[in-house]
Write a structure and sequence with these properties.
heterotrimer, A alpha+beta, B mainly alpha, C mainly alpha, A: alpha+beta, four-stranded mixed β-sheet, about 45% strand, B: mainly alpha, 15 helices, about 70% helix
Chain lengths: ~130, ~350, ~375
């Protein structure tokens, strides 16, 4: 490095700096981006099978809790890459099943999660419309 | 430079921005028929606007010639004109009587304001333009308060429902709307209207200015502007010349405002006059003037070009692009011209 | 000796003293509670100080009051618009806006400095007009290009015709991001500590900057361009750098300002920025050739105090709040006019004194 002229060294440092800043900016966008997550408790088809809507389901995400009847949808705004939500199915007021589902998002603006699919343990729970 | 010869000299004298704008204007007129814009309507619009704005642009000349720079304090003269107009309307004077009464009332007010303004500028040689701008702004704001308080009582001018204070816009319909424009005017066909009255008035005032600068006082004023030390050595009272030029500019501003109002049809009070110096400055610069040199030709040419652009751009470009870009173009053109003038070196004046 | 220094102190700080007297008289008339005033002042200090700080560097470099700071404000707004468009919220949103605004500010600052160099002696008017000119360019970009040539993802930002940004943009995700980062409540007054930390950190930066070589160069250029040139300082370049720094700071200042307000008025927010910042600086006792950090804080405090008091005082005094409004506008512009006048008189006095010295040395 010492062999390079002062000018070249300055350009090198400046280019590195610019690249670092751009990467930092990209990083910021990833961690700061706001997404809309829609939870849909509706009947859904996947791989030729029908997954019926759940009778009653409770979702905890962040500090908010929602209870959904069949056919309900609720949308929540989340920020960042990793957001987990707790899903509990209720049968006659008693917690039947409880799954903590990790939600990893990248740059999507909005994503729709099908709750029946989550409860059924399916690998792909997002639905597109 | 030598290799370009004649053309280079012309370009150097006119400056690129002016040539570009002149070509732009010609292009606009040429393309007008292609987008269903009538040339005769446009032409008469331009002529009306030249008569409307010309004297305001002319008001720039005395101060430029005497070395006081661009008159950003034009609002002072405009305010004098507004007071004159409003007072004349308060007494329900109509027609030419109303018009000339407005002018007669405005002139002494303009003279007093000009005297004060000139005194300020003489105190601050070298920084005139900035101070002029803010003196202009403060006085507009001050008048805003005054319009609310002054004891005018003609109900046509006041706020409705017995409120106190003048309205923001007062219609001239019952008074002297377009009194100059229509004087001796004529139509050609259905669309062309030649506002003889205002153009003649403009020409007369231009002539008076031109004659003034040929008198001893006029030449003394130019000398004070181009070379103060030399002028002083020759017995010219530079400060007095500058003061005189400011008073003249302010009076012209007052008259110009009254002419503007009669053509426009409304008196705009409160914040109306706030930015009115800028189009006038841009117009005179567009016509070839610089910060320290301006001729009557600059005024006429500049007003024609500037108002031409302002008239033609909305109609043509809007029909072409289906969008209203006129505001943006106006901002870019007028401020660009002023910028160009500010960044040029001082020109040597021809004797 | 003591009497003279008191008189000297009053004369050289006449503007803030007038404002103080005015405030003292008007507060009781306005009938506003001290608690309300305190809260307003705290909020406004946190919101507007950074913008006024941006004006210090060009004054140091002898370029007068940088009306071209509007260009930085526009850059900051564009940065915020893109951050909102991409849905980035909170502190990352502010940082993204700053990251986008910075290169734009550098470019615009360079342009501004370059043009101001071409108009030596008339820098203030030139930067003033340049501000207007750039407003036209900004409108062109924001009103016509964005959404069309320049892609904007979220349709809520656009006008109904499909291109061009809407007039009022909600900054819901970013609102108060910096303010509430670290916030304190004392006696019911909420204080945005984080913002103040940023401001104070920046003041520290300014103080240190003045001690660097670049800072000293600027001071030299500000005092006498010819002498500085003779000492080997690249005068033109230094002046441009001063303006670039000022523009970048104006960009950040505008972002801080807007995150407090919570909405961008796409076509209006930046217009008053320059005027109010400069008025505040002048109210604080600065002149176009001399300004320090104390001027900034005192100025923001007094100027905004008057801002808040005038409408209500005017209403109670004369029965018309509108009058109070106009009075405020009048005072803002009048102050700048008076300060410019004093500045010009001072310049003239210095010039005459220098000529007298030269004549005497010749004799």
């Amino acid at each position: 490095m010492i062999c390079l002229s002062v000018f070249k060294r300055r350009m090198f440092i400046r280019t590195v700096l610019v690249i670092v800043l751009i990467l930092f900016g990209v990083f910021l966008v990833f961690i700061g981006k706001q997404h809309i997550v829609v939870f849909a408790n509706e009947e859904v088809y996947q791989d030729g099978k029908i997954f019926p809507a759940l009778t009653k389901v409770r979702i905890k995400i962040g500090e908010e809790t929602f209870e959904l009847e069949p056919g309900d949808r609720v949308s929540v705004e989340v920020v960042g890459l990793k957001n987990a939500f707790l899903i509990e199915t209720l049968a006659d007021g008693v917690v039947d099943k409880s799954i903590t589902f990790p939600l990893s998002l990248k740059l999507e603006r909005m994503v729709i999660i099908s709750l029946p699919l989550v409860v059924a343990g399916s690998s792909n729970v997002t639905i597109t419309e | 430079m030598c290799s370009f010869g004649q053309i280079g000299k012309v370009i150097e004298r006119f400056g690129w921005p002016r040539l570009i704008i002149a070509f732009f204007l010609v292009a606009l007129f040429a393309s007008a028929p292609l987008v269903n814009v009538r040339i005769d309507t446009s032409l008469s619009d331009v002529l009306v606007r030249v008569g409307m704005n010309g004297i305001l642009v002319l008001a720039m000349v005395p101060m430029i010639q005497s070395g006081c720079g661009l008159n950003f304090g034009l609002p002072l003269g405009i305010i004098a004109g507004l007071v004159g107009a409003v007072t004349s309307m308060n007494f329900s004077l109509q027609g030419f009587v109303g018009f000339f009464a407005a002018i007669l009332i405005a002139i002494p007010i303009a003279a007093i304001l000009g005297y004060f303004y000139g005194w300020l500028l003489n105190l601050t040689k070298g920084d005139e333009m900035m101070i002029a701008t803010y003196v202009g702004f403060s006085s507009v704001a001050f008048m805003c308060m005054m319009w609310l308080l002054l004891p005018y009582h003609n109900p046509l001018m006041l706020w409705g429902f017995g409120g106190s204070g003048l309205r923001t816009t007062i219609s001239l319909q019952a008074f002297w709307l377009q009194i100059l424009d229509k004087f001796l005017s004529f139509h050609i066909g259905n669309y062309f209207f030649f506002p003889t009255g205002s153009l003649v008035f403009f020409a007369v005032v231009c002539f008076v200015m031109w004659a003034f600068f040929r008198t001893t006082t006029g030449t003394a004023m130019m000398a004070a502007g181009s070379n103060p030390q030399f002028a002083r050595a020759n017995g010219v009272d530079v400060d007095r010349m500058r003061m005189l030029s400011v008073v003249m500019s302010t009076i012209l501003g007052a008259i110009g405002m009254i002419v503007y109002e009669q053509s426009y049809g409304f008196i705009q009070l409160y914040m109306g006059p706030f930015y009115m110096a800028f189009p006038a400055v841009a117009a005179v610069l567009l016509g070839g003037a610089s910060v320290n040199k301006a001729t009557i030709t600059n005024v006429v040419l500049g007003t024609l070009l500037f108002q031409g652009i302002l008239t033609m751009t909305p109609s043509v470009i809007n029909s072409l692009l289906k969008t209203d870009m006129s505001e943006v173009i106006r901002i870019v053109v007028s401020n660009g011209m002023i910028l160009y003038a500010l960044t040029r070196k001082e020109q040597v004046k021809k004797r | 000796m003591k009497g003279r220094s008191l008189k000297g102190f009053i004369l050289s700080n006449i503007v803030p003293i007038i404002f103080l007297v005015f405030a003292a008289l008007a507060i009781p008339i306005s009938g506003l509670s001290y608690r309300y005033l305190f809260q307003e002042i705290i909020t406004r200090l946190s919101r507007d100080t950074f913008l006024v700080l941006a004006l210090l560097v060009p004054v140091l470099a002898g370029m007068g009051l940088n009306f071209g700071m509007v260009l930085g404000a526009m850059a900051g707004q564009i940065g915020l618009m893109l951050a909102v468009d991409w849905g980035v919220v909170g502190i990352p949103g502010l940082l993204v806006a700053a990251l986008i605004g910075t290169p734009i500010s550098v470019l615009l600052g360079f342009l501004c400095g370059y043009i101001m160099n071409k108009a030596k002696g008339r820098e203030m008017v030139t930067s003033y007009i340049l501000g207007f000119f750039m407003n036209g360019a900004y409108q062109f970009v924001v009103l016509y290009c964005m959404g069309g040539i320049f892609p904007i993802k979220s349709p809520q930002l656009l006008l109904s015709r499909g291109y061009g940004v809407r007039n009022a943009l909600s900054l819901a995700g970013i609102r108060g991001a910096l303010d509430s980062l670290v916030s304190m409540e004392i006696h019911g007054l909420s204080i945005p500590v984080a913002t103040f930390i940023v401001i104070l950190a920046f003041c520290l930066f300014l103080i240190l900057f003045e001690k660097t070589k670049l800072g000293q160069d600027m001071r030299a250029v500000g005092q006498d361009m010819v002498v500085a040139d003779g000492a080997g300082i690249p005068v033109e370049r230094t002046r441009i750098v001063a303006i670039i720094i000022s523009t970048i700071l104006a960009c950040y200042g505008q972002i801080i300002f807007l995150q407090n307000i919570g909405t961008i008025n796409t076509y209006n927010s930046h217009e008053q920025t320059g005027i109010f910042a400069i008025a505040a600086l002048l109210v604080g006792g600065a002149t176009a050739s001399k300004a320090n950090i104390v001027n900034v804080f005192v100025g923001v405090l007094l100027f905004h105090l008057m801002f808040v008091i005038s409408p209500t005082a005017g209403k109670n005094l004369i029965g018309d709040a509108q009058l109070g409004e106009y009075f405020r506008v009048f005072v803002s512009y009048g102050i700048i006019a008076i300060a410019l006048l004093l500045h010009a008189l001072e310049r003239r006095r210095v010039r005459i004194a220098r000529m007298k010295m030269e004549n005497e040395s010749v004799v």
